[in-house]
Amino acid sequence: MTWIFFTLFAAVMQSVRTAAQKRLSGQISALGVTYARYVFGLPIAALYMLLLQTDLPTAFAAPAQVWGVILFGGIMQIIATWALVSVFQWRNFAAGTTFAKTEALQTAVLGAVIGVPLALGGWLSVLVGVLGIVALSYPANFRSLRAWLTPATGLGLLSGFGFALSSLCIHASSKQLGLPPLQAASVVLVSMIVMQLVLMTLWFLWRDRALFAALAQHWRWAAFIGLTSALGSIGWFTAMSLQNPALVKTLGQVEFFVTLLITWRLFKESIGGKEWVGMTLILVSVVLLLYTA
After folding, report:
1. Domain count of the fold of the chain
2. Strands (E), the chain
3. Which of 39, 83, 208, 238 could form a disulfide with 155 if both were Cys (CB 3.0 to 4.6 A apart)?
4. Rounded distance, CA 139 to CA 90, Å?
């Protein structure tokens, strides 16, 4: 099952990238951090596509609507990334992060609506995984309604929704390029990044030219984010070209194991009861997924 390898690789890269994004978000706007991913990630993604000896003439012969789907997916990914990075700027970011991690469930629901359904075992795996995420990241005062009714919660839901739509666009467009899955995923990835770069460059030239100087000043962190983002995207895009995106996102929740391991080993923070409950539920969801997929 090739998709499992690519998903696990993507999850590790994403956990590292998220930590770097949080570091850079203190220096650059949320949208600027998103832009850094594409600026420094494009050369790596393009090199990967060339190393695969991708049949570009066949890809470019795809119907015009394929490129429209890729463009829409790219716009939704920009919005989702901006929303996720913005969550960290709010005091109650734990609630926002929790709702952002409903991405797998939102992908499953939206997929069922547009014709990418899950079997019963897949639904069970997704639901158990979401419960695990909630157990890991719910606010300490979760019984208070005020803890949930915050801008961070809205941003978290928007992030999950945007990533869900983007994932489904990646899955759909890669199926219509007439290429082997790895090549198709690389074409979708490079095409999406190019479109995102054009849109965001025009935006910053119009609204915030100071960002370019800020990126130059913090280029080391920005380049690291671009590297880990490109590697992670290669994993995500390939896995989603091979498998239902909802299942890919569910398996990808093992990212939390990596994050907790980093927290425990590097920052010497203890792992409490809710972390153990959450990790157990995620592990159960992964076993269910692998058994039924």
Report:
1. 1
2. none
3. 83
4. 13
DSSP string, 241-279: HHS-HHHHHHHGGGHHHHHHHHHHHHS-----HHHHHHH
Mean pLDDT by 10 residues, the chain (293 residues): 90 80 72 86 95 93 93 93 75 62 85 84 83 68 57 82 94 93 96 94 90 86 89 95 90 75 58 69 77 64
Domain with 80, as residue range(s), is: 2-292
Cβ contact 38:196 at 8 Å:
yes
First to last CA, the chain: 10
How far is it, in rounded angstroms, from Cα 123 to Cα 143? Answer: 27
Residue tagged 């839901």 (tokens): 157
Dist. CA 279–CA 273, nearest whole Å: 10
Rounded to two decimals, the pTM is: 0.86
> Identity (one letter) of the amino acid at 84?
L
